[in-house]
Amino acid sequence: MDTTYGTTTGASAYYAHGTQAERWERARLFFDAKEYTAAARVLTGLVEEEPEQTGPRLLLARSYYHSAQLRRAEAELRTIVARDPVEHYARLMLGRTLERQGRHDEAAPHLRLAAALSGEFAQG
């Protein structure tokens, strides 16, 4: 029996254990259970291994957002929108992340663009 899980190295090994598919599933289970910090720990490794994949990076950003790690969420979301400017959900999340930080002027263009990309135009 491995008793190293109480240490930083052991905990890191737990979150990095398994195939990419197994870790993706574990991260989704943590996220669905609202264990956002644990999900982020698993997803960090996946994003490092496959930085071009949007799915893991977006779930990582969402995990950071829900665990109030807003600067980290912002960084991940900015990476996504830099690569794919029409990724409307990332734009929406970026706008909400900026709003949550009190940066409403910066958030507004992202929220407008997200609404336009999703077909939700403001009435007026």
The number of helical elements comes to 7
Major sheet size, sense and barrel closure? none
Number of strands: 0
What ranges have pLDDT less than 50 throughout 5 or more consecutive residues? 1-8
Report the sheet-strand fraction: under 5%
C-alpha Rg, in Å?
A: 16 Å
The mean pLDDT is 89
Kindly state the percentage of residues in helix. over 70%
| N-C termini distance | 65 Å
Q: H/E order of the elements?
A: HHHHHHH
Key terms:
124 residues; mainly alpha; 7 helices
What does this structure look like?
The protein is mainly alpha-helical and 124 residues long. It is 73% helix and 0% strand. The chain is built from 7 helices and no strands. The protein has helices at 8-16, 20-32, 36-49, 54-66, 70-83, 88-100, 104-118. Helix 2 packs antiparallel against helix 3 and helix 3 runs antiparallel to helix 4.
In short:
By secondary structure, the protein is mainly alpha-helical.
